[in-house]
Amino acid sequence: MKEMLHWLDKRVQLTPESLAVETVSGEVITYRELREKAQDFAGKIKVHYSKKLTGQVAILAENSLDMVVAILGCTYLDCPLVLLNTKLSKKEWQYQVEDADVSLVICDSIYEEAVAEVTSDKVAVVCTSEIEKLSVVKTQFKTHIELSDVATLMYTSGTTGKAKAVEQSFENHWWSAISSALNLGIDTKDKWLVSLPLYHISGLSSLFKSLIYGMPILLMEKFDATFVHNAIMTKEVSIISVVSLTCKRLLEELGDDNYPSTFRCMLLGGGPAPLSLLEEAKEKQVPIFQTYGMTETCSQISTLAPTDAMDKIGSAGKPLFPAELEIRGKDGVLEPLTVGEIVVKGPMVALGYHNNSIATKESFRSNWLYTGDLGYVDNDGFLYVVDRRKDLIVSGGENVYPAEIENILLTHPLIKEAGVTGVPDEKWGSVPVAFVVSSQAINKKELEKFCKEKLATFKTPKDFCFVEALPRNATNKLVRHRLQELYLER
User: Fold this and answer.
1) Within the chain, how many helices (H) and strands (E) appear?
2) pTM for the full model?
3) Any stretches that span the bilayer, and where are they (predicted)?
4) Burial 95-125 (b: 16+ CB within 10 A, else e)
5) Domains of the chain: which residue ranges?
6) Is residue 160 pLDDT above 70, yes or no?
């Protein structure tokens, strides 16, 4: 077994009085104070809820210092931590609690009643404020982390069926942090602004990086473009993770201004980014580094290096050290510039899916993860992500990529957001339709003409739906399958 000193204990050994977490409300906490709170929290759970530690512990909470304490406190207990998405329905919480063998749910008070309604008597539900009131009892904690142990269970979006619980080991999280550092480097003045949920891999990975790097995080409950902009400009934030929508909003906030030299990295993930957005960022000299990763890879596994950011615009870079990446088709590895399935390998790739051997065997084969994403590598080995395989539209035998159509739509001066999905068609099997958020009314015929000038006829949307907002998940990623449902419900 490979082990190392608990990450929080080691960080306290090295920099006990350094800032660990800062919140929007002005709360600040050092690593020494954070360990004390985390161990107090763990002690209360271990002593007062010992009979409920027969299974996993789940956390259902919004970003806060209390959630940070709860997450790190649970790493001192001998059970994996299940991170539940606050945006899900009660039925989805029920399914995940049962599927992950959860025996104790720790939640914000606003969720306590709802969770209690859908969990069995075998599951204890307790809110963080109740735990705060419990007496502190001195007890023994594990001092070392077994790297092969499952650290967290995190559910995938479940857009093609039941959500799957990804088993992420401490080793997966460790190598995710180290690989990122080997690519982006570590600066002693780094501060990572975390606006993505801690129950999402992008948010959680930033928390673990904080311990491993000794890097403070500025924690937000949710994304707010004005606050993030001001934080970059005045609070010496150096790194932030974004998706296309939040990146676009930040560029709007920036206007004709420039970010200070302290801001060195905007990690852009969450799927293919519109070329128009990347060109705008380049023009404004915003340090965007496209990245590719997923829950199963414990965050990024391929990222554009700083030295290539301006020359390989649109690329998600090369696989991080020591990861590997291939593009495969039915007959094996494909030649450069050929679209196929992105397949990855490395120590940051998760162990598999909890209680789902069939899905594990399907996606994890001979140490390779078959991602279900489509992309290609250029002649220099740089990855370009095209789309999700499940979002691919096959129309009359032709492959249609929704992201390509969305990119074209977003070049229209009146369109703020665009989402494309496929719907059944008697003649062609499936045809693309577009959902559009616009600043003012647009004639459908004019929009069709706009697309036909830039796209093949079979790629041009057969209908346009004008909406006030597109369906998005907790990280502001477009949920395309919901578009199809909305269209068919009309």
Assistant:
1) 15, 29
2) 0.89
3) none
4) bbbebbbbbbbbbbeebbeebeebbeeebbb
5) 29-146, 169-348+359-389, 392-489
6) no
